[in-house]
Design a protein that fits this description.
Number of helices: 11
Largest sheet: 9 strands, mixed
Radius of gyration: 18 Å
Helix content: 25-40%
Strand order of the largest sheet: 6-5-1-9-10-11-12-13-14
CATH class: Alpha Beta
CATH topology: UDP-N-acetylmuramoyl-L-alanine:D-glutamate ligase
Number of strands: 14
Low-confidence stretches: none
Strand content: 25-35%
Length: 308
């Protein structure tokens, strides 16, 4: 069984959308990535940090999903990372209301010994120096390193980000971030520039408009499933990344052709994530639900056409 190490936040979120609002609930990149990856036959471990205020039941949830939490440090006298945001009516834009780094401010990731030889490393959205620290702890060269990042690090830690980008095989970012990173409006040109920075594969997420996968001159597009209701987009990108990484680790096939499938699996799982607030939908997701929706994805994109 392949090993997958996931580094990212395990956190509290407070969310407001046109459909309602929540108090502090379970969130964080590593949480969503882990819950998505748990749908596959992989030996996954989360590397993160929480405070003494973090409920044991949330840690138990991860453990019960077969996610190893030996790398989740608990700082008893500290407070857990907290983010609060309000989404606009289009659900694509949002305002950050509060960001409290708390224990994350001094996070020094420690990869468990048993996972320092992991086949796949999923670097969730964190400071590039933290991401690099994880790569430096690996005792064997991973078969695949996937990086997720965001515009915040492009604004304040661009040089560090470039150093990490050189070391990864796959980068996943959204369309706005791809344009900011490269200064190019065309996503095709942006992907080519990012490819030149180091990654062999570039995944550009376009929210409700799907995702693009680039490799050399090859391009693959996966649509997002049209949904009747979207309650909360928080965590959708991380869920996509977790499904993408989990599928690749479970199949042990890191080819462009198999990455097409991974993009579909990631998009499929992300479509469930947005249907409820926080992790609520992902906690009880069944294989039958996943398989049924995969068939919907196939029907959405399958067609026959005669070419003269």
């Amino acid at each position: 069984m392949s090993k997958l190490v996931i580094v990212g936040t395990v956190a509290f979120d407070a969310i407001e959308t046109p459909f309602g609002k929540t108090d502090k609930i379970l969130g964080g990149a590593a949480t969503f990535i882990g819950l998505a990856a748990s749908q596959f036959d992989v030996d996954a471990a989360a590397v993160s940090v929480v405070g003494g205020d973090f409920p044991q039941e949330y840690l138990d949830l991860l453990s019960n999903k077969n996610i190893n939490i030996d790398g989740v440090e608990i700082i008893k006298d500290g407070k857990t990372f907290f983010w609060s945001g309000k989404y606009h009516n289009d659900m694509n834009s949002r305002d950050t209301l509060a960001t409290e780094l708390n224990v994350l401010a001094d996070f020094d990731p420690k990869v468990p010994e048993d996972y320092k030889n992991s086949d796949v490393v999923m670097l969730g959205n964190l400071h590039p120096i933290v991401q690099m620290s994880v790569l430096n702890q690996m005792t064997a060269t991973p078969k695949l390193v996937i990086l997720d990042t965001m515009n915040f690090w492009m604004d304040c830690a661009l040089d560090d980000l470039h150093q990490v980008i050189k070391k990864v095989d796959v980068i996943t970012i959204n369309d706005e971030e791809a344009r900011q990173l490269t200064g190019e409006y065309s996503l095709v040109v942006a992907a080519r520039k990012i490819h030149d920075m180091g990654p062999k594969y570039v995944v550009i997420k376009k929210g409700e408009h799907g995702a693009l996968l680039f490799h050399d001159d090859n391009v693959f597009y996966a649509p997002a499933l049209p949904l009747e209701e979207v309650f909360d987009p928080t965590g959708a990108g991380d869920t996509f990344a977790g499904g993408f990484a989990g599928y690749l680790a479970s199949t042990e096939d890191y080819s462009f052709e198999n990455m097409k499938n991974a993009v579909i699996y990631g998009s499929n799982l992300a479509s469930f994530c947005v249907e409820k607030f926080g992790t609520e939908r992902m906690k009880n997701l069944t294989k039958d639900e996943i398989d049924y929706r995969l068939k919907e994805f196939k029907q959405l994109t399958q067609f026959d056409i005669e070419l003269s």
